[in-house]
Amino acid sequence: MKNPVKTILGLGILAVLCFYGWRYQTQGILFDESGISGQFETILDDVLDRNGVGESDVLKTQRREIKKDVPLPTLWIETERSVRLSPTIVLNDIIQALERSGIPLKMKVLSRNSRSGSTIVELGKKKNQVFQRIIFLTSGKKQSPSAQGRGGAVTIVIDDLAGRLSDIENLEKFFALNVPITYAVLPQEKMSRAISEKIHANGQEIILHQPMEPEDIQHNDPGGATLLVSMSEPEIQSRLKKNLQSVPYALGISNHMGSRFTADEKAMKIFLNSLKAFSKSNPLREDLFFFDSRTSPKSVARKTSLSLRVPYQVNDIFLDDQDDLATIKKQIQQLKKEVRRKGHGIAIGHIQRGHLLQALSETIPEFHKEGIEFVPLSQLIRSPQ
Q: What pTM does this model have?
């Protein structure tokens, strides 16, 4: 006598197979996720509304049916909308809320890319399955730094991530500061991609920390991902492309070391032209900018960026050349003077320094009290146009 449980189970499996076979024959798909698409859109509508984006701020909405192997034949609805943001809305807060809202449906932020006057955010299950593409539009003209906050704007860039196992643990401590920070990730390290993913998931900004040739390379080895003055244009293009691919979500590039490279006009022209070429061939990486760490007083980065029409910005101060609490706090006070003088200030610190975190934790309330707003580096980038 046959086991009735096995018989029922077998019939159930056969019914499922018949259903999927029928669906594939009649619709060309195995999975229909159009219902999830609608559910996710409703959730995002609620998130936007709770963050101050009303129906009147949605300027354009387009939906299209997608059928694609991901890896099995699947149908879903891809929605693209253009959303106008008022200057009082903090984009990072919205993106973090969008990320959290997608967790129950296994959705996440797949990419975030800023271009002049807009930020494009894509959400979905995997890179080739975008459910929502939101184009956040700011005013055509960037706010002046002094308009960012009552007392100006300040950006902190944390350098040298991915070089040590302790970097991931230290990241959590910087996240706990609860201010926007831009993180410069070294390429071609074992943890480059994992750290980039972690920063991105936290809604913070990433740039590629590109190693460049220093003056004394014999005693200061930048590593195997370095750009050298002696390299040809194809060599620089190839290495830069490989490095950018190892640091996903990077919105720009800064130099790691590079005192010789950034002072060499020919090398910088090749590098910046390569950067422009990569941006043009990668729509989600348009308008990549260059941030000059200013490791050399002879740097030609500003002049070359302007001549080649590459968005750029320059570091004002290093916070922790000396890993001493009192000295770092003194540098932070110098940074505040820069903000008072010109409306904004940019400083570089390093992930592995022992006293930087404490210094920032103790002085961030002072910035808030004086009306100085912390902003990601991309908000202070100068357009060459």
A: 0.66
